[in-house]
Amino acid sequence: MANKFGNLFTITTFGESHGPAIGGVIDGCPAGIELDFEAIQNELDRRKPGQSKIVTQRKEPDTVEFMAGIFEGKTTGASIGFRIVNTNQKSKDYSHIKDQYRPSHADYTYSQKYGHRDYKGGGRTSARETANWVVGGAVAKQAIPEIKINAFTSSVGNIHLDTPYQELDFSLIESNIARCPDAKKAEEMIDYISEIKKQGDTVGGVVTCVIQNVPVGLGEPIFDKLHAQLGKAMLSINAVKGFEFGSGFEGAAMTGSQHNDIFNADGSTKTNYSGGIQGGISNGMDIYFKVAFKPVATVIQEQETIDKDGNIVKMMGKGRHDPCVVPRAIPIVEALAAMVIVDNIMLDKARRI
Amino acid sequence: MANKFGNLFTITTFGESHGPAIGGVIDGCPAGIELDFEAIQNELDRRKPGQSKIVTQRKEPDTVEFMAGIFEGKTTGASIGFRIVNTNQKSKDYSHIKDQYRPSHADYTYSQKYGHRDYKGGGRTSARETANWVVGGAVAKQAIPEIKINAFTSSVGNIHLDTPYQELDFSLIESNIARCPDAKKAEEMIDYISEIKKQGDTVGGVVTCVIQNVPVGLGEPIFDKLHAQLGKAMLSINAVKGFEFGSGFEGAAMTGSQHNDIFNADGSTKTNYSGGIQGGISNGMDIYFKVAFKPVATVIQEQETIDKDGNIVKMMGKGRHDPCVVPRAIPIVEALAAMVIVDNIMLDKARRI
Amino acid sequence: MANKFGNLFTITTFGESHGPAIGGVIDGCPAGIELDFEAIQNELDRRKPGQSKIVTQRKEPDTVEFMAGIFEGKTTGASIGFRIVNTNQKSKDYSHIKDQYRPSHADYTYSQKYGHRDYKGGGRTSARETANWVVGGAVAKQAIPEIKINAFTSSVGNIHLDTPYQELDFSLIESNIARCPDAKKAEEMIDYISEIKKQGDTVGGVVTCVIQNVPVGLGEPIFDKLHAQLGKAMLSINAVKGFEFGSGFEGAAMTGSQHNDIFNADGSTKTNYSGGIQGGISNGMDIYFKVAFKPVATVIQEQETIDKDGNIVKMMGKGRHDPCVVPRAIPIVEALAAMVIVDNIMLDKARRI
Amino acid sequence: MANKFGNLFTITTFGESHGPAIGGVIDGCPAGIELDFEAIQNELDRRKPGQSKIVTQRKEPDTVEFMAGIFEGKTTGASIGFRIVNTNQKSKDYSHIKDQYRPSHADYTYSQKYGHRDYKGGGRTSARETANWVVGGAVAKQAIPEIKINAFTSSVGNIHLDTPYQELDFSLIESNIARCPDAKKAEEMIDYISEIKKQGDTVGGVVTCVIQNVPVGLGEPIFDKLHAQLGKAMLSINAVKGFEFGSGFEGAAMTGSQHNDIFNADGSTKTNYSGGIQGGISNGMDIYFKVAFKPVATVIQEQETIDKDGNIVKMMGKGRHDPCVVPRAIPIVEALAAMVIVDNIMLDKARRI
């Protein structure tokens, strides 16, 4: 609950962006997995701030430090403790935020719920938390090397990549800073984000994720359907407003005779409106889904807001924030997906006593 | 996990449509709630088959029978056991389904996962399960009479009700069999569903749900954000392919300066793109979200499929299925929402020791 | 939590002795297990009231009725719903209990916690609940036929069976109504219980349980040690006041050089003070433990007590209660042990991805 | 599960004694608690090695470092991350243990379960883990300053403190290194442990714990009875073999008319064989229980054992181990008890919606 994710393969996290460190405990990881630490750091680097001109210019090396659960380079089956020291928590002046509630942030709700709030850098609501998830996901990925998980930017504002994912070359995702596997669309997105940034504004976008080579049978019926677990995971990411898989919202306008996925003799299907999941359980086809991100709430423009006493005040956004979170969200989406898949492989194994 | 929903207010369920009964255990319900049994049955009646010409013509009275946890008409705080006897499990011939996998059903995935499958009426994958949820939700609603939960049909196929929910009269939802609070749109929807039904086909749709009068502070940060819990709940409903709240997928195309909800002096906001939830925690504004339903997979048309040995066979849909599930899904969406809200009121109370 | 037991193989229960039925949901049971229904009923018969002269003379057939999760005699992997109809909830006069708190019962604590209390037959606190567990355990046993679980009466009052369990013939447990595999001790116990009963009094006792043929490796480290799970399970049984495994409280008086279990070449140990569990994980040796039961609180003697207004009143125990619960507790101890073992076999399997 | 303890107030831990650090995440701690860090460190000091002549002479400062969840000295309601750096993990030669299984340790079971084992200092099975629990318990204690939790040494070997706890002065517990509130018994215990130590042997003992000023109503019925939660917690401590509360195993020899706790007019009881818990729920009387610890398995004597290939080998215990763990176990027992109580106060609050 709350700060814990997963059923058998779990991650429990802590951390505020302006405290000494963030980190967590990965529990239930099978023993004997030889970890590639460079690959783990590489995932963090894909998420880290300052990596390109279209993300926040804040600098954090985001170096993960493992404290337990690994012996001679392999997982032991014991819980894996890790942390990422915060190196950028400069003694910035937060007095302007302390008593004011930034619009569309969690300042107001946290203040009301907890009374005592860490206002520096958003405290626990900081998206810095997602670096912890990337660590968990990077470990998870190494437990299931046979499964391919690729996320990419499919929309920024009104710029949409409409090409079916089957026609995309996922090896191009990392070839541009937008993380869009279509060079032309990527350029448009980069230009648009740059423009938005100049205006001191921000913009939302959509991430598409494709999971391939998934065995048949993952997912628990009724309340732990595989797509429901994936949906909950994605809706946990800061700024996410929507999730759809397979035919998604468009499927709602279709008829059954159009939408049904007809079988091939080997159990695969001719179409895949189901998105690789039927009755909550994977059918061996590609799993694909979309995640909608709203624009970042911090804009470098003057806004009206209230302080804790209900006075209307003027506020000017400060700080080095992302004009668009989508490019940095790619490894986060993949990380959560990887943890869901490992967890369900373990659950499925347990069921087959 | 699996057949259990919720954290503190939970429901654990069982049942196949063609077995003796479905039912469940509601656990954690606070003591002393005087139950209105007629209201509970009324919710079941809103979901039951045979209620109108645009739903399945199967007849089931769906009478709930409470077996424990209630004394002198009030909840005791003990677990509430209930069941709904299946009266319609006629000794129908299922031999045509036994060894065949219906397209876009869960026949194939269940067979692969469990080996031994109850093929009658879909077994555990039957949407009849949702009657259990309606019972849980009806009890939950009575624990929080001050909170108003209204769901309605906002799309059927390409017929969309685009009126902002604030301009709708929720008292009209039950005035028509489409459960759309706009008489004209409702008529269009009813006509379209009737037409689709004649063709032996089915169609999807969208449900919108609005939760009003929610206290500030509900929801747990990080992995149990209020909207993530709602999303997971909705994605558990059979046929659901997508979930969005507040600005949803449209919000992904907006800029921060457009999307930010500016505060009024009392903590309420001038706009509500946030959908009543900020940082995963309710802010006191209306919570609203949309749920996309794909078309029902059973069509009364000849389809090609495979049998368990991988032979391509012809199959003709039989049975009395819904041409569109959306009108019957309304009470299900409300029920799950009610359980999530009660659960989070309890969680929030626990946090304020 | 609360009314749910287990991690992956779980049982969630409901029921009061004087309501319409008790029952529950067994969730996570692997698919394809061919159930022997007679064996399940037989376990219930070992627990049922009225079975001998030294137990309560109340008559309940305790017939279990399965409602879901079983198809053609085999488990399907879906949740198993069951109930046991209460046939003995006669319209007895409970007015003497309604406003009074029976000493050493849960009347006072339930009243204070829940406010609204079902006072008939103890409501939810009735040990009738344990019939549900026996159903769960009987199903669990059939999932692990290779594992032998035998519980027996090892003490009644001050009559102790001190023979090491290795020298006992477990096939004699069911040969007498005390369920003590030593005919002479059994007779002493029966005589003593009969005597106590005549006095309108009750007496406590101890159950020993031995689990044999357990694979090496069951149990989760740190907070789900196998013995901690067994201990919690046993401490859930009404009237239990203590749990010890292996050397138990006597081990606390030993030295390390006495207590250490020296290995044989095959990994087995020469002694077994560890009780088959080391570091929380089974080592393949017999698991054995003891469970202490206090005397039943209902005595057919006049006692002083208080009513809800704090008045001191006289109260005379009524009803047909057990003079000693231990003989009927045997199948309950075995049932819980069986569920713990199955659960941990599943957990262990999940860990070995 | 596994490395997580608690329902709402939880602790999730990691760490091996010879890795870089141990630590954990305290989740669900209410916001606004002003932490006394000196008091937290003081609890760790009560547990730390090297504190007296009758415990291990290993030196570890055991300084806790908080990394998150605390702002301006108060808890924020966010998860609290902490760690304790291992300063004593010297590059000792463990080659003698690497391939051998020490008798009555977890070497064999861990090797069999996980395959890949951290053999240094026992890896994850090290009782160093309990320092994490002491941190969690120290925070929990500060959330409930009104509740008094006192544990003390009541037996070492065959030296028993039989005085009823009501006649003891708990302020004397810390007055001697045995942590026994009876000066004479303490001296006997200290002498005996010193003697045992000289022999290179170890000895077990018993801890008694008393929890006072507990509100009525804590505990969940059926499977989360307050004493079952306490029992599971205590059985999680390394070396524990038994748990009893109230009358415990002695109660099993009593009759109902002796054992029943007769009420006073105010709801308190004249005797307290129930141990402050009736039907799993606290009744406001003192909660008291006993925990049995076996002797430490590491003895500085030659023992026969096996290596991983099943060869019989001679082994000589090395290292600086405790001759008796009981004095250092006192703060651990209190810590777990404190976490159980806070957790149940929160659960109880949630139930009273």
TrEMBL record, chains A, B, C, D:
<dbReference type="InterPro" id="IPR000453">
    <property type="entry name" value="Chorismate_synth"/>
</dbReference>
<dbReference type="InterPro" id="IPR035904">
    <property type="entry name" value="Chorismate_synth_AroC_sf"/>
</dbReference>
<feature type="binding site">
    <location>
        <position position="53"/>
    </location>
    <ligand>
        <name>NADP(+)</name>
    </ligand>
</feature>
<keyword id="KW-0521">NADP</keyword>
<keyword id="KW-0028">Amino-acid biosynthesis</keyword>
<feature type="binding site">
    <location>
        <position position="279"/>
    </location>
    <ligand>
        <name>FMN</name>
    </ligand>
</feature>
<dbReference type="GO" id="GO:0004107">
    <property type="term" value="F:chorismate synthase activity"/>
</dbReference>
<keyword id="KW-0288">FMN</keyword>
<comment type="similarity">
    <text>Belongs to the chorismate synthase family.</text>
</comment>
<keyword id="KW-0057">Aromatic amino acid biosynthesis</keyword>
<comment type="subunit">
    <text>Homotetramer.</text>
</comment>
<comment type="function">
    <text>This reaction introduces a second double bond into the aromatic ring system.</text>
</comment>
<feature type="binding site">
    <location>
        <begin position="238"/>
        <end position="239"/>
    </location>
    <ligand>
        <name>FMN</name>
    </ligand>
</feature>
<keyword id="KW-0285">Flavoprotein</keyword>
<feature type="binding site">
    <location>
        <begin position="124"/>
        <end position="126"/>
    </location>
    <ligand>
        <name>FMN</name>
    </ligand>
</feature>
<comment type="pathway">
    <text>Metabolic intermediate biosynthesis; chorismate biosynthesis; chorismate from D-erythrose 4-phosphate and phosphoenolpyruvate: step 7/7.</text>
</comment>
<feature type="binding site">
    <location>
        <position position="320"/>
    </location>
    <ligand>
        <name>FMN</name>
    </ligand>
</feature>
<dbReference type="InterPro" id="IPR020541">
    <property type="entry name" value="Chorismate_synthase_CS"/>
</dbReference>
<feature type="binding site">
    <location>
        <position position="47"/>
    </location>
    <ligand>
        <name>NADP(+)</name>
    </ligand>
</feature>
<keyword id="KW-0274">FAD</keyword>
<dbReference type="GO" id="GO:0009073">
    <property type="term" value="P:aromatic amino acid family biosynthetic process"/>
</dbReference>
<keyword id="KW-0456">Lyase</keyword>
<feature type="binding site">
    <location>
        <begin position="294"/>
        <end position="298"/>
    </location>
    <ligand>
        <name>FMN</name>
    </ligand>
</feature>
<dbReference type="GO" id="GO:0009423">
    <property type="term" value="P:chorismate biosynthetic process"/>
</dbReference>
<protein>
    <recommendedName>
        <fullName>Chorismate synthase</fullName>
        <ecNumber>4.2.3.5</ecNumber>
    </recommendedName>
</protein>
<dbReference type="GO" id="GO:0010181">
    <property type="term" value="F:FMN binding"/>
</dbReference>
<dbReference type="Pfam" id="PF01264">
    <property type="entry name" value="Chorismate_synt"/>
</dbReference>
<dbReference type="GO" id="GO:0008652">
    <property type="term" value="P:amino acid biosynthetic process"/>
</dbReference>
<dbReference type="GO" id="GO:0005829">
    <property type="term" value="C:cytosol"/>
</dbReference>
